[in-house]
Amino acid sequence: MRTPIIAGNWKMFKTVPEAKAFIEEIKGKAEVAGVESVICAPFTNLPALMEAVKGTSIKIGAQNLHFEDDGAYTGEISGVMLKDLGVHYVIIGHSERRAYFAESDEIVNKKVFAAFKHGITPIVCVGEKLEEREADQTKAVCKVQTEGALKGLTAEQAAQVVIAYEPIWAIGTGKSSTAQDANEVISYIRELVKGLYGENVANAVRIQYGGSVKPENVVEYMGQSDIDGALVGGASLQPTSYVQLVEGAK
Ligand code: PEP
């Protein structure tokens, strides 16, 4: 069986003292047997967070990495540096990075390889824009992005990837996809993985839903056959609601 995974995406929020205080508040609460609990924080918070979660089951993720190990890439952070901190996860290809930082499927794929090279599990985001949904292109977009992200991975690696299906029109808008619609697209993505790697990998790969998930709707998403958790922005910023999200995933 697949272990559900709730991942908070803090985006560009929280100073180091705020991040530390958050962990103090969720310790022992956002630690539910059978649910993986992950906080993906800004780079500046990562050393303090790695220290803060010691002795807990809470895992820490970054929100991006560069695909090279080092070099003249001003402002970038590499997998070598994240591995040095002991970070467990890294979000790759979030729609905000695709939109504002021109991340293509090729770049996403290189970043996925860089994460594996350094033993960090990628959380790869895929999802359609509103106009693509309206043009009935949701599955076509998810196909290109999923196949692009996984290209060249071994079956063993593909089975470890976490995929986050995030319809862009639902991110930070309060307009969430219905649980049934999200499940339909996620089942389709699982079928794509099956086509590429076979049934065992498809059954192992975890696929989250993301887009205005909150404590009030998380249980409904988690009740769907193919949804293995959630990638959550806004509702992951408050300790109480983050704890409720993790509890809702059990
Ligand atoms: C996200 O940042 O990936 C996200 C889904 O945000 P929100 O939960 O705020 O829609």
UniProtKB/TrEMBL annotation:
Active site positions: H94 (electrophile), E166 (proton acceptor)
Keywords from the named record: Cytoplasm, Gluconeogenesis, Glycolysis, Isomerase
GO annotation, biological process: gluconeogenesis; glyceraldehyde-3-phosphate biosynthetic process; glycerol catabolic process; glycolytic process
Gene Ontology CC entries for this record: cytosol
Catalyses which reaction(s): D-glyceraldehyde 3-phosphate = dihydroxyacetone phosphate
Principal localisation: cytoplasm
Positions of substrate binding: N9, W10, K11, G172, S212, G233, G234
Coiled-coil annotated residue ranges, if any: none
InterPro entries: Aldolase_TIM (IPR013785), TIM_sf (IPR035990), TrioseP_Isoase_bac/euk (IPR022896), Triosephosphate_isomerase (IPR000652), Triosephosphate_isomerase_AS (IPR020861)
EC number: 5.3.1.1
Subcellular location field: Cytoplasm
GO terms assigned for molecular function: triose-phosphate isomerase activity
Origin superkingdom: Bacteria
Pathway in which this enzyme or protein is active: Carbohydrate degradation; glycolysis; D-glyceraldehyde 3-phosphate from glycerone phosphate: step 1/1; Carbohydrate biosynthesis; gluconeogenesis
The keyword Cytoplasm is assigned to this record: yes
PANTHER family the UniProt entry points to: TRIOSEPHOSPHATE ISOMERASE
Job of this protein: Involved in the gluconeogenesis. Catalyzes stereospecifically the conversion of dihydroxyacetone phosphate (DHAP) to D-glyceraldehyde-3-phosphate (G3P).
Subunit structure: Homodimer.
Family: Belongs to the triosephosphate isomerase family.
Protein name: Triosephosphate isomerase
Source organism of the structure: Paenibacillus crassostreae
Gene: tpiA
